[in-house]
Amino acid sequence: MTSIDLDKGDAARRTPTPEEFAAAYASPQFQELRTRLRRFVFPMAAAFLIWYLSYVLLGAYAHDFMATEVFGHVNAGLLLGLGQFVTTFAITAAYVRFANRQLDPRAAAIRSTLEEDLA
């Protein structure tokens, strides 16, 4: 007896067995998906953490530099702090674009092999 879930559009989909999940996890397609994710996430996270740590260290130890007025009452510390927000949004946008182009199609293909239509 096959268990059935109702998914998007009321399409009946088969629920994979634990053995099928294990086989999908061990498949070359899934390993490629994980590798692509790691190749994006780890360097991006490391770069952002280094950038953030640099900002904190500059704020703690380079008071004169951070207090340098760039224009008007806006100093280097304020611009670097705002740069943290800009960097966060840029990384998020880059990840969404990467996921839409590289990860989601591969994940959908793996899922479709696990949940074949019953029709």
From TrEMBL:
Keyword tags: Membrane, Transmembrane, Transmembrane helix
The keyword Membrane is assigned to this record: yes
TM regions (residue ranges): 40-62, 74-96
Pfam short name (any one): DUF485
Keyword ATP-binding appears in the UniProt entry: no
InterPro entries reported in the protein's UniProt record: DUF485 (IPR007436)
This protein's name: DUF485 domain-containing protein
High-level lineage: Bacteria, Bacillati, Actinomycetota, Actinomycetes, Mycobacteriales
